[in-house]
Amino acid sequence: MYRGMFLIGSALLPCLAHAQNSSGTAGKDTAQRIDGYYEQRQPLQPERPVVDPVQPAPPPAGQRGLADVRGSFVLNEVRFSPSALLPKATLDAIAARYQGREVHLAELETLVADVNAAYEAAGISTARALLREQSINEGRVDVTLLEGTLGTLEVTGEGKVPVRFVERRVRQPVGEVVRSDRLRDELIYLNRTTDLQVRALMRPGQAAGQTDIVLLAEVPDRSNWGVFVDNSGVETTGRERYGAHGQFWGLAGISDLLAGSVAWSRGGLEGRIGYSGIVNTRNGRVGASVSRSQINIIDGAYRALDITGESTSYGLDFTQPWVATPNWLLSTIANVSRSNSVSDIGDVRVSEVDSTTVTLGVSTGYRNDGYDWTFYQGVSRIRTDETLAEGRAFTTANGSTSWTQRIGSSGLLYRAQLGWQFSNGDFLPSSNLFQVGGIGSVRGYVRGTLSGVKGYFGSVELHRPYRQAHDVYVFFDHGEVRGDYPTSASISSVGVGLNGQLAKRYSYSLDLGHPLDKVLQDDDSLRADFRISARW
């Protein structure tokens, strides 16, 4: 039904290049896309709004009492003690509501309550206004503003907490007035842009008017390991894959992560290792990675030709958050990578491609109670040198977006996802083609069923989580690619899936997809994709 560049496997070299190093959406290679798909297959829940990380203690104690006054009097002036937290204009506006008229004692208490409400509106929980015992002379009333100064700042928690890392991101000098509003913003930013979860407990200090802050940090496990088995490979190199992965966190105390993975099939071996860490106080993260794959065609029309291939890729990336609030997260991403792919038939080298890619992108997300969405758009400039073609350069734009929504109180959720690629060229190396089909795009088809220089895919899923450990869903997937000939081709599928966790250590995922469009005569009417994994 389809011809030319749309059929992965319809020609020798595209098939081989696909098995070596195929690009996915949003700049991820196939292995990363598959792993990312299964990571998000855990029982679906919308991201909850960020909770307030500041737990206020009672404000600094002061001598409390009522004004020494009976009945009413004309209030001529309200005098506030100096404030480092509330603007003078705010205090003057509150006083103006009561000055110049006859007031009762209850109205003075209302005035004090108005000042405390102004503190609360500003997100300040370590200060309050008091009306001390006093004599009223000439209609003047003094209101004391108690604004706690920082006594001590302590960082603690279970495990190896990077104390200095946290302290550098909390600007609360000892002896200065505690800015709980600023502390709240700093902790939200820290929690949303690192692997840490830090909350602040405030308590009265040892001296009068002091507030102590205890920062309680939750850190990831120092290390964890896992193994898995799935059938996300391709028929030419073996569908069944067996893999292992592991990671170490906090080796340098900068919220850094060293992670690696390896996957083996009958005709392929692929591995990846990467390290990243935070390098500035605004939590910009630098990462470096290297990946390598080897393949041997063991099935299909070319299995007797002794076809082998190797691919090696090196990458360096930098992610800088700019906005991190309870609802919004905005980051920019820069990446540069260099890859080399070779293909051999027996002892004859038939293809070698070197490519350099520079990518700039922006990532944003929004979360609220019951729904969340994400958006990514990247633009890549790619330079390739090939043995069978002259060197060339081209530009691609890859992007993705997703939306997750809770449906009232029904217990149901839906998720919609979309991925795309645009390009300024009509011919791209097969490793840079946009591919649809398989896990992470259009389920029910083999991986990379269609490919083209431009394309998109989308999916809609209806989920029913069960006990926050299991999830059943139905889905509809659709994808389309465009190229030289034919001008376009598309595929669609419907299906059902389930995933979950057992005993917190084991997880499973199963997708059953039914293709709605015939691509090859021997296409299955039902395709099952699964992964079973365990973690320690």
Secondary structure layout:
Layout: H1 12-20, H2 30-39, E1 54-55, E2 72-75, E3 77-80, H3 88-96, E4 101-104, H4 105-121, E5 127-130, E6 140-147, E7 149-156, H5 163-167, H6 180-193, E8 197-204, E9 210-218, E10 223-230, E11 241-249, E12 257-265, E13 268-278, E14 285-296, E15 307-324, E16 328-345, E17 348-368, E18 371-386, E19 392-407, E20 412-423, E21 434-436, E22 450-452, E23 454-466, E24 470-482, E25 488-502, E26 506-515, E27 527-535
Parallel strand pairs: 1-8, 3-6, 7-9
Antiparallel strand pairs: 2-4, 5-6, 8-9, 10-11, 10-27, 11-12, 12-13, 13-14, 14-15, 15-16, 16-17, 17-18, 18-19, 19-20, 20-23, 21-22, 23-24, 24-25, 25-26, 26-27
Description:
The protein has 536 residues and is mainly beta. It folds into three domains: 4-48 and 222-535, Porin (Beta Barrel), CATH 2.40.160; 72-146, Roll (Ubiquitin-like (UB roll)); 149-218, Ubiquitin-like (UB roll), CATH 3.10.20.310. 12% of the residues lie in helices and 50% in strands. The chain has helices at 12-20, 30-39, 88-96, 105-121, 163-167, 180-193; strands at residues 54-55, 72-75, 77-80, 101-104, 127-130, 140-147, 149-156, 197-204, 210-218, 223-230, 241-249, 257-265, 268-278, 285-296, 307-324, 328-345, 348-368, 371-386, 392-407, 412-423, 434-436, 450-452, 454-466, 470-482, 488-502, 506-515, 527-535. The protein has a 16-stranded antiparallel β-barrel with strand order 10-11-12-13-14-15-16-17-18-19-20-23-24-25-26-27. Strand 15 (307-324) and strand 16 (328-345) form a beta hairpin. Pfam families: POTRA_2, ShlB. This is BamA/TamA family outer membrane protein. One of its GO terms (biological process) is protein secretion by the type V secretion system.
